[in-house]
Amino acid sequence: MISKRGMVVKRPLLASVFLGLSNVGGIVFPVSAQESETASAPAPAKFAQRIDAEEKADASVDPAASLVLRKQMLEDALALAPPDPRSVGRVHQLIGQAYFHLGDVDQAFAAFQSAEKSLAEAGEEARQDLIKTRSDLAVIYNYKGEHEKARKNFLEALAFWEETAANEPHLELATALNNMAASELEQGNLNAALEYNQRATDMAFALDPVPLDTPVWLANRIVYLYQAGQTDAAIAAGREGLARMREILPPDHPSNGNMLANMASLLYRQGRPNDALDFARRAFEVQEKAAGGPTQNSAAIRSIYASALIANGDYADAITFLDAALPILVDQLGAESDRTLLARTYRATALSQLERYDEALAEQRAVALISDSKLPEFHRDRAGSYIGLASIALKAGRLEMAREAAAQAIALQSQALVAEHPELLATKAMALAIDSRLQLRSPEQLTSEAKALLMIMQRNLGLSQNGAIGQRERKAFAYLSEVLLRAGEDLETSFLALQYVAFSRLDSIPEADMPTDGLDQPDADLLGQYAALRSERTALLDAASGRIANAKAEFSLADDVAAVAAIDRKMAVAEQQIKAAGLTKYLPVQTFQPLQFADVNAALTDSAAVLMATELNDQVAVFYIDADKKTGVLSDLSARDTKEYVDRIRASVDPLTAAQTAFDEEAAQKLYQGLLGVLPSGILEGRSELYYVANGALDALPFSLLSAQETGPDGETSAHFLIDKIGLAQLPSIQFLKRAGGTEALGDVGLFLGIGAASSGNGDYQTLASRSASDARVVADLPALPASEKELRDLAAIINGKKTALLLGPDATETAIAATMVPPQSIIAFATHGLVSGELEGLKEPALLVAPDDESDGLLTVSEIAKLSLPAEWVILSACNSAASIGPDDPGLSGLAEAFMRAGGRHILATHWIVQDDIASMLTLETLKYAGEGLSAPQALQRAIASVRAQSDGKLHPAFWAPFMVIGR
Prior knowledge:
The strands form 5 sheets. A 6-stranded mixed beta sheet has the order 11-10-12-16-17-18, sandwiched between helices. Strands 5-4-3-6-9 form a 5-stranded mixed beta sheet. It contains 37 helices and 18 strands. It is α/β, with parallel strands linked by helices.
């Protein structure tokens, strides 16, 4: 059986793209010489049968054992009299594959060279074997950065196998197509890479058995799509690939490592470090199990794992992982290999986060020097090394060093990228922020440059095929926001830029394009022309992204500049024609439109204000808007300090330890001072409602806990919570102001739908129940909620709507909820257990406990809620953790609260942590009572909290009243 090469490129944008060699066909264990021999066959023929059998084996499963067996086969081949050069060459090739799976690239290369020499001596009868060996050598050439040699071998193999296969599915042809895909990516030809890869995988699944390298090819597709800017398609390809891999390989097969590693890299770049950690851990574990220990491949994956640890804030652990991986990478790939330099870059980043700036700068400087010595000026990694150096120097406050490094990066990028390219724009935004901190130019100059960059970045997003705001763009917008706020010349533009930084998942809900059916042919052609130009522009910028990852690329920047200019001119003409023809509504719908001050003012009543607190790269920006005033400032509060204070406050409001823990007043006052104390004195006077938007660590904290100190006329100081002064509600994003409609106060209720008392807990539960799974192992272990049924009946009595529907106990099923028609101006209340992701075995998203039936499992999950139609004025979620996110990588409010908003809910009463059954009942009743009296949602909750606290003479610990919050308006 012939061997196949699962080849991937060395390291383009996704760091986890790995070269992989593995056999194809079914997994067949090695066959001994005695089993394969026949008495009548001559010695060379009998030995050839042994090689055929070994080629069917999967060396990646146990490469060490395979290497021992194959070295013995080589001794046997050389002992033949005379030695058969074809047999000797084939065994050398098998030995090279075993070395490769062990991570020893140099030994693999030497074995493949020996194979090539012997097979060339064997003549025409060994032609196929020679072609396969040269493909193996090409894989190693790519590792060594000798891409032209690799491409020459791959082209030779493709031509040979296309002629041999004669247009029929063929194992070797599928491999050759895959190798050409990787080679095209090295050349920056993304469309060709995707086409070759698609042909390879389609052919693989047409074969029986499916080649064992197919999972590697599927993993490669993630890279090609990501390089082409198709992030959503890349994620979908990864998940589809993982599913199809299960049809081909067992879970612990080492070839799974490539797919898992690529998914880890993609998720990391998507800002999902916790998800990336799981994929990366599984990737290096499966590869090290097969190899019997760490290899350069698994060490590179450990570097990816470390990068996710850094993103998750585990800096010391990341350095530990990197210190273990780096010696392996240096030993097996060399001190100047791409993977080694990437690991050192991650290490420098971790050191800087620990404020070990001298070490971090020394590490990153070394990476930059090596990159300068080995890479062409236009290469992404060369500019990237200086971007990394500038970022660390900026964080360390070494602004002159940061400015010099950023200028070097821009000079390098400008040799290969047009001025409109997102990567160059991001670096220019950082350089502008550095100049702003150094105060090297006037505020007017800085504002003008920032607005120019902002305009181009906005246009790029509008023309992008996926329309999402990635981590790179978000960071660039953060730098521009900083520049504009510090300059203070254009408050509205700084507010606009800040909205891109605070972009949320709810902002990304796409609107359907207008159907063009029925248009006259000239109009349809005009719109088609515009769409084609848009795609052409995106493809040109994407191609440049792929090109600058290739050390051998040839290109003309002048041609790129001319091409973009020509496309932009044609698009401008097409846009004018579209407007003149009255076809503007058919243009692609932008998924995100930032609000102007006028939009905000139009959405607010005279008594209301908006506060927007947004983490920039290492600072917090605060914007305040009401009917009379608008102000934006850069707070002295750092993002790191913000997280520390939020963590401290959250630790002090755990209901399970509240009796022994004092509320952290100091942390609450620090946050108040950093968010509201930086605004003009008395700014909230005359306001009764404050809607706030927060991101990062702040979205895990109800602002009701912010605490201010006041000095009275007598000189005595006293503290008060923000909720004592003003009603509060949180918005998922500032965009939600525009989406909201209707009246603020509780109107004429069309339906009250109450769902609760679904727990199967023991009836003799003696203490007040917590509406959380807590330590329950299964649903049957959950405690009963004795107050829930009464709560719902009392709510029904208070609301006195046109219609009441109570789904209690076994009647509270998903089927019954979905079947209930919910008209606008309705109220829905859940008095049941709220479960967070992972709280029960197999639960991967937040859920509410309802009752099971023949059609459902009794867990109403966020994905099921989002599909319902629930246009309710109020959704009461007095369960525990109902404001929690889907998972640690997701923004706040991305769980149950977001799901009910997607289903149509307007005001969501949700909770940040575990709530006590009796307190939950009192607060929900009081909130709806005050809403029924005409108070707005924020005011109703404010009055309810005050009422509950008054019953304990104000001594009720914040752990019990503070988790409740209103979301929306």
